[in-house]
Amino acid sequence: MIDGFVALYIFMLAAFTGYEIIARVPVILHTPLMSGSNFVHGIVLVGAMVALGHADGPLDIAIGFIAVVLAAGNAVGGYVVTERMLEMFKSSRPGGANGEKG
Amino acid sequence: MHADVLTRWLPEAIRACYLIAALLFILGLKRMSSPRTARGGVVWAGVGMLLAVLATLLLPGMHHLGLIVLGIAVAGGLAWWSGKRVAMTDMPQMVALYNGMGGGAAAAIGVFELVGAARVAAMGGVDAMAPAALVLAVLGVLIGAVSFSGSLIAFAKLQGWMDRRFVFPGQQVFNVLILLLAVVLGGVLIFAPPAMAVIAGFLLAALAFGLLMTLPIGGADMPVVISLYNALTGLAVAFEGFVLQNEAMIIAGTVVGAAGTLLTQLMAKAMNRSLGNVLFGSFGAAAGEAQ
After folding, report:
1. Residue A13 — pLDDT band, cuts 50, 70, 90?
2. Of B163, B249, B178, nearest to B209 (Cα)?
3. Are B62 and A50 inside 8 Å of each other by CB?
4. Which of A68, B74, B210, B228 could pair with B146 in a Cys bridge, judged by C-beta atoms 3.0 to 4.6 Å apart?
5. Residue B98: what pLDDT?
6. Would you give the distance in Å from CA B142 to the centre of its chain?
7. Is residue A12 part of a domain?
8. Could you read off the pLDDT of B205-251 as tens digits, one per residue?
9. What DSSP string runs through B74-117?
10. What pLDDT sits at residue A99?
11. pLDDT averaged over chain B?
């Protein structure tokens, strides 16, 4: 059981961590990084699996299944798209910026 | 004896997997923020994701494992296929789509928990959920649902399905009223025993607000808006992670929430715009460039 204050400490430290790792990102990486962080919150899949895994009755199963389907789309799609964007950064030098603007 | 050792250590081993996953996410994002290491970063995060998902399948007391695997296989397969074949220039809307799905998933988890609490309340039970968990579940649904419908509109606009900006008189007031309705219904869920009808109304109001908030924003500003919804989804995931007592979701969600907020500001700055101008610019006199 995560106590309320422990959760607040986790929130605080994780928020600083998130802020710090992005602080010096070059403009060329804005879109790939957005895509990368989009993949990372695909971890919601774990929660969706837990929900469906503890579903009790048709309504529960339906909501849990929707959660799993949406979350799996987030995780898998997020990974594929991020990997494709970052393929352009092949060498040790910044490559093309095709994925930069929509 | 052997089974006893397994039941005692398996939950701890799974939590250790979540810890390693959280570490890999942070290191992966760190690598993704530098051009030299960016490419490997996504692989690090991917390994963390795989580890967390496989560990979750081993959680004791899980039912419907077949349905879980089926859902992941079908949705994951479709996402894989769509992500591989999309043109490089269409990437931003795919990010919007997948991000919206994540927000929707977080909202669905919150609704799942609230429906469970409503069932307990209907049977005369009290304290179906701890107060902090209840508040965060409601907040997670609100934020996740706004991110879901908002991201879908962003996707539709960038895909070219919605060329016109959608503006009508009194729109801003109307939007605020819808948001207020969602907040009031959320408050009712927190302070009164949760009821199914209130949950449904709350979810619909939150979805409507995300829709209405995104409709007036022009296509050129969409990358900034998608980044904002990305941060919001992260926050919603973190809140629902607290409800489920899942450390990996709390840490990954919060990291993305904070990183995404900063990234949104950086992107707006790179366009010489303020975030407020992007979100509400179409209402003012200096309406920005339409697509």
Report:
1. very high
2. B178
3. yes
4. B210
5. 98
6. 10
7. no
8. 999 999 999 998 887 889 999 999 999 999 999 999 999 999 999 99
9. HHHHHHHHHHHHS-GGGHHHHHHHHHHHHHHHHHHHHHHHHHHH
10. 43
11. 91
* Cα–Cα distance measured from residue B291 to residue B288, given in angstroms and rounded to the nearest whole number: 9
How much of chain A, in percent, has pLDDT values that exceed 70?
86
pLDDT interval class at B4 (50, 70, 90)? confident
Query: Could you tell me if residue A17 is inside a domain?
Result: no
- The residue range of the domain holding A41 is 27-88
Residue identified by tokens 């007031």 is B173
For residue B215, the Cα-to-chain-centroid distance in whole angstroms is: 19
**A31 domain-assigned:** yes
Nearest residue, CB atoms, A15 vs list B32, B62, B257: B257
Confidence of residue B25 (pLDDT cuts 50, 70, 90): very high
Q: Would you state the torsion angle of the CA atoms of residues A31, A36, A38, A42, taken in this order, to the nearest 10 degrees?
A: 170
Cβ atoms < 10 Å from Cβ of B147: 33
Do the Cβ atoms of B63 and A53 come within 8 Å? yes
Interface of A with B in 48-87 (CB under 8 A): 48-55, 59-61, 63-87
Residue partners of B236: CB distance under 8 A and separation at least 6: B103, B106, B107, B110, B139, B140, B141, B143, B144, B147, B253
Radius of gyration of chain A (CA): 18
Number of domains in chain A: 1
Q: What is the pLDDT of residue A95?
A: 46
Taking CB atoms and an 8 Å cut-off, how many pairs form between chains A and B? 354
ipTM here: 0.92
Closest CA to B52 of A50, A25, A37, A8: A50
Cβ distance A52 to B71 less than 8 Å, yes or no, reads yes
Cβ contact B230:B99 at 8 Å: yes
The helix or strand, by DSSP H or E, that contains position B170, with its residue range, turns out to be none
Residue B289 — pLDDT band, cuts 50, 70, 90? very low
Categorize the per-residue pLDDT at B43 as very low, low, confident or very high, splitting at 50, 70 and 90.
very high
> Which residue in A92, A37, A18, A99 sits closest to B34, CA to CA?
A92
pTM for the model: 0.91
Q: Is residue A14 part of a domain?
A: no
- Subunit contact A44:B249, Cβ cutoff 8 A: yes
